[in-house]
Amino acid sequence: MDPLYQDYLQMEDSRVIVPISDDSAHMPVYANYLISQKRIVKPVIETLVKEWPTEQK
Predict the structure, then answer these.
(1) What is the pLDDT, as a whole number, of residue 1?
(2) Under DSSP, is residue 3 helix (H, G, I), strand (E, B) or coil?
(3) For the whole model, what pTM was predicted?
(4) DSSP secondary-structure letter at 23?
(5) Is-contact 16 22, C-beta < 8 A?
(6) Rounded to the nearest 5°, which phi and psi values hold at 44?
(7) Smallest Cα–Cα separation from 26: which of 56, 57, 50?
């Protein structure tokens, strides 16, 4: 792990979230994996699908 990572996390974060409101600015996301890895990858993909933001809250 980067030794400066913890310092970075503690710095003031002045970023502003700007939602993307243009429908044409979105794109599909695909997951590629080996069939032999399906048992390992499937739970990760399911979690991403469940947690991925679909609209601004």
Answers:
(1) 65
(2) coil
(3) 0.52
(4) G
(5) no
(6) -65, -45
(7) 56
